UniProtKB/TrEMBL annotation:
Species, as recorded: Desulfacinum infernum
Domain 4Fe-4S Mo/W bis-MGD-type: 3-60
A Pfam family recorded for this sequence: Molydop_binding
Signal peptide (residue range): none
Gene Ontology MF terms in the entry: acetylene hydratase activity; iron-sulfur cluster binding; metal ion binding; molybdopterin cofactor binding; oxidoreductase activity
Highest taxon listed in the record's lineage: Bacteria
Protein name: 4Fe-4S Mo/W bis-MGD-type domain-containing protein
Iron in keyword set: yes
Entry similarity comment: Belongs to the prokaryotic molybdopterin-containing oxidoreductase family.
Keyword annotations from UniProtKB, A to Z: Iron, Iron-sulfur, Metal-binding
C-alpha cells in the first residue's frame, strides 16, 4: 500500500499542540515529523511529539478492560468486555448515588487535554456531584483567578507583537511549551530585538541568553514581585495616564509596596540588589513589555499574592491589552464552556463544593485534589466512596503521596482510564484502556484561555479494545439515565462544539487551527470586566469574600539545622508530569531520576557525580541520583518530579514510592485563597547512599 501523509497536532505530551505531519502505510504510522507550514507552531517541535509512533505501539500499553481479581494492588486481573466494564461503572456509581447521594461520588483529571475534561465536568454537574478533583490549584488557576479578579481576563504574553522586553518569570518555554506558549515563539520575539529578563533559580539555556538573570531563592517570588513594584512605583516608572484613568487602589498599592525596599528583597531572595533595580527598570521602561509566567509561581502557600503582584506589574506599567504586552485573547466562536459543562443544571454547586467548606476562593472550576483525598480519609464534610480517574496519576502527582495511597485503598470503588498500568491504576477495581491521540478525532485547547483551538484528526485505528475518553464518558452518561443530555457518539460531540463556528469537523481539519479575533485596548470602549470597570489593584471581590484586598509578601524563614538545604523540583523536559517513563526513546535521554546539587553543597556532603543519594524532608524520604552542577547556588537542590518505574513489572505498584517527589510534600499549610500546598521551597537534607 502506498504511503499517505496526514496533518494533525501533538496532544498529551504537553500543552503545546505543535503541528505534525504523519506518514501512514497499511494502517500503521511510519514516521512523525514537524509541520513547517502549521500556522501555530511553524515547525517548532520536541522529542516527545516525535515519539508518538512508539507511544501507540508500545508493548506495555493496555488494550483490554480489566477487572481486579484479587486484593487491591495485588496485580491480579481478569479481562472483561466493554459492556461489562461500563455496567460495573454504572452499577457502582448508581448504588452509591441511591444510598449516599451525589456527594459520595468523585471524579479526577489532571491537566485538561481536550474536551474530555469538560465532558467529565458535564457528567458530574448533571449528577449534581460537586467533587471533580483537579490540579488547577497548583497549575494555572492561581494565575487565572487572580487576573480575573484584578483585570477581568487572563493576560497572555503577546510574543507575536512588538515587544521590547520579555520578563520570563518561573517559565522555560524552550523546554516545556507551557499552555500554548511555544519556545519557537519566544525565540522569534528575541530575534526581533526584545530584551530578556529571566527569574529562575536554575541557570537554564534561556537564563544564559538573558540580558539579566535573577537567580531567585525558591519560594520568594511574592517578595521579588513586591520589590519590583516598589522600584517602579517609588521611581515613578509607572504609566501615569493608564494608572490615573484605568485603575483603582493605586494609593493603597503604593503604601502596600513601600516596605519592600531593594535591600530587604535582595536579602530574602538572595539576588543582588542592583540586579533587582536594573531588572525592574528595564521591564518598566521598555514599551511594550510582556511578562510570561510559568506555573512554578503557583507552588507555594503564597501563590495568590504572588500572582496578584505579577498582574499588578503588567497593569501599572501600562502593558495590559497592549500589542507586544499581555493581551486578552478571545476564543473562536465555539460552544460556550458553561453549556458544555452544563453549569446551569447545578445551581447549588458553589455551596456544595469542598472549596466552600474549606473557605477558599468560591469560583474554581474544580476541587483541589488534596481536599478530595482528605474527604475520603476523614469522611467529612461528607463521605466520598466512589472515584473515577482519567488522564492523571494521583499516586505520583498529588501532594502527600502516602495519604493518597491510603485514600485510594479505602474506597468502595475505583475506576481508572489510562494508557498503561500506572501505580494509580494498579489500585483500581476496573481499568479502562484508552485510545490515544492520532487514533481518534479530537479538538485541542478547547476551554483554555489562549485564543485558539487545534485540529487533531485521527490518522490510524486504535487497538480493538481501546476507546477514547470522550467515548467512555458519553456512553457512561447515557447508561446513567442521561441519554437526552449526551450525544450519539464522539463525532457528534465535536460537531456540537464547532457548530457556532459554522464549520464541520472536516472543514476545521482542513484549516488546522482556528484563531479568535485579536483586539487591543478594548477597555477604552467597554472598561475592564471587574466590579469597578477598572483594574482593581485593591480587589473589591477578595475584600467582599473576606480575604486581603492587597497583596503581601513574606520574608523566608531560616532553614532548620536538621534540614539545611532548600528543595525545589523540575518536570524533566522528556516527559509530561508522570507520563511516558515507559517510552525508550525518551527514557534513554533521561534514564533515572536525578537530583541536581551545587558543587559547593556536594563537596560539603562528600557526594560524587552519579552517586545515589537519599533526599529527606520532615515528611518522607526518597532516593535519586546525584548530578553536580554550577547551575544552582547553595543551599538549593532540585529534584526530578513524577518518577515511577513502568519496567518493574514484578512490583504491582511499579516502584511508586522509591523516587516519588510527593513522598516529601504535605498539605499541612496551604494558600488561604487558592489552597496551594508547599510543593517547592521545602527544607530538606541529602544523605549519600
Amino acid at each position: 500500500m502506498a504511503q499517505e501523509w496526514f496533518r494533525t497536532h501533538c496532544a498529551r505530551f504537553d500543552h503545546g499542540g505543535c503541528g505534525l505531519k504523519v506518514a501512514v502505510t497499511d494502517g500503521r504510522i511510519d514516521k512523525v515529523a514537524p509541520d513547517p507550514d502549521d500556522p501555530f507552531s511553524r515547525g517548532w517541535h520536541c522529542r516527545k511529539g516525535l515519539s508518538a509512533k512508539e507511544r501507540l505501539e508500545h508493548p506495555l500499553r493496555l488494550t483490554q478492560p480489566l477487572r481486579r481479581n484479587g486484593p487491591r494492588g495485588s496485580g491480579l486481573w481478569e479481562p472483561i468486555s466493554w459492556d461489562q466494564a461500563l455496567d460495573q461503572l454504572t452499577q457502582s456509581f448508581s448504588k452509591a448515588l441511591r444510598s449516599a447521594g451525589p456527594e459520595s461520588l468523585a471524579f479526577a483529571q489532571g491537566a485538561p487535554k481536550g474536551p474530555e475534561f469538560f465532558l467529565l465536568l458535564r457528567l458530574a454537574n448533571l449528577l449534581q456531584c460537586p467533587n471533580v478533583a483537579g490540579s488547577q490549584h497548583v497549575c494555572h488557576m492561581p494565575r487565572e483567578q487572580m487576573a480575573l479578579l484584578t483585570c477581568g481576563f487572563f493576560p497572555v504574553a503577546d510574543l507575536h507583537g512588538p515587544s521590547q522586553c520579555v520578563l520570563l518569570w518561573g517559565s522555560n518555554p524552550s523546554a516545556t511549551n507551557e499552555e500554548g506558549v511555544l519556545g519557537g515563539h519566544l525565540l522569534a520575539c528575541l530575534k526581533q530585538g526584545a530584551r530578556l529578563v529571566v527569574v529562575d533559580p536554575l541557570r537554564t539555556a534561556l537564563a544564559e541568553k538573558a540580558d539579566l538573570w535573577l537567580q531567585i531563592r525558591p519560594g520568594t517570588d511574592d517578595l521579588l514581585a513586591m520589590g519590583f513594584l516598589h522600584v517602579i512605583v517609588e521611581e515613578g516608572l509607572y504609566d501615569r495616564a493608564f494608572v490615573d484613568q484605568w485603575t483603582v487602589g493605586f494609593d493603597e498599592l503604593r503604601r502596600a509596596v513601600q516596605p519592600y525596599k531593594p535591600d530587604r528583597v535582595a536579602a530574602g531572595c538572595r539576588v543582588d540588589q542592583a540586579q533587582i533595580v536594573s531588572a525592574a527598570r528595564l521591564y518598566a521602561q521598555s514599551r511594550p513589555a510582556c511578562l510570561q509566567w510559568g506555573n512554578a509561581v503557583e507552588h507555594t502557600p503564597n501563590s495568590a499574592d504572588t500572582c496578584r503582584a505579577l498582574v499588578h506589574l503588567m497593569a501599572v506599567t501600562g502593558n495590559l491589552e497592549e500589542p507586544g504586552g499581555n493581551v486578552r485573547t478571545e476564543m473562536p466562536r465555539l460552544m460556550p464552556l458553561k453549556d458544555m459543562i452544563a453549569l446551569d443544571d447545578f445551581p447549588d454547586r458553589p455551596k456544595k463544593l469542598l472549596n466552600h467548606h474549606h473557605g477558599i476562593l468560591p469560583r474554581l472550576i474544580s476541587v483541589p485534589s488534596w481536599m478530595v483525598v482528605q474527604s475520603i480519609l476523614q469522611q467529612a464534610p461528607y463521605p466520598i466512596r466512589c472515584l473515577y480517574v482519567q488522564g492523571t496519576n494521583p499516586m505520583l502527582s498529588y501532594s502527600e503521596a502516602p495519604s493518597v495511597k491510603k485514600a485510594l485503598e479505602s474506597l468502595d470503588f475505583l475506576a481508572v482510564a489510562d494508557q498503561v498500568m500506572t501505580p494509580t491504576a494498579a489500585l483500581a477495581d476496573v481499568v479502562l484502556p484508552v485510545a490515544l491521540p492520532m487514533e481518534y478525532d479530537d479538538i485541542g485547547h478547547y476551554g483554555l484561555p489562549h485564543g485558539f483551538v487545534t485540529a487533531r484528526p485521527k490518522v490510524v485505528d486504535p487497538p480493538e479494545g481501546c476507546r477514547s475518553d470522550v467515548w467512555i464518558l458519553n456512553e457512561w452518561g447515557k447508561r446513567l439515565g442521561l441519554a437526552d443530555r449526551f450525544w450519539d457518539g464522539p463525532e457528534a460531540v465535536l460537531e456540537a462544539i464547532l457548530a457556532p463556528s459554522g464549520l464541520s469537523y472536516r472543514e476545521f481539519c482542513e484549516k488546522g487551527v482556528l484563531f479568535g479575533p485579536k483586539r487591543f485596548r478594548t477597555y477604552r470602549d467597554k472598561g475592564f470586566k471587574t466590579p469597578s470597570g477598572k483594574v482593581e489593584l485593591r480587589s473589591s471581590l477578595l475584600e467582599k469574600w473576606g480575604f486581603r484586598p492587597l497583596p503581601e509578601a513574606e520574608d523566608p524563614a531560616p532553614l532548620p539545622n536538621d534540614f539545611p538545604l532548600l528543595l525545589t523540583s523540575r518536570k524533566p523536559k522528556d516527559f509530561f508530569h508522570s507520563a511516558y517513563r515507559h517510552l525508550d526513546s525518551l527514557r534513554k535521554n533521561h534514564p533515572e531520576p536525578v537530583v541536581w546539587i551545587p558543587h559547593e553543597t556536594a563537596a560539603r556532603l562528600g557526594i560524587e557525580e552519579g552517586q545515589d543519594v537519599a533526599i529527606e524532608t520532615a515528611h518522607g524520604r526518597i532516593r535519586q541520583r546525584a548530578h553536580l552542577t554550577d547551575a544552582l547556588q547553595h543551599p538549593v537542590v532540585s529534584a526530578d518530579y513524577g518518577w515511577w518505574f513502568p519496567e518493574r513489572t514484578d512490583d504491582p505498584l511499579r516502584g511508586w514510592n522509591a523516587a516519588n517527589l510527593n513522598m516529601l510534600t504535605a498539605v499541612d499549610r496551604t494558600d488561604p485563597v487558592m489552597a496551594t500546598p508547599q510543593v517547592r521551597a521545602i527544607p530538606c537534607r541529602i544523605v549519600p547512599v
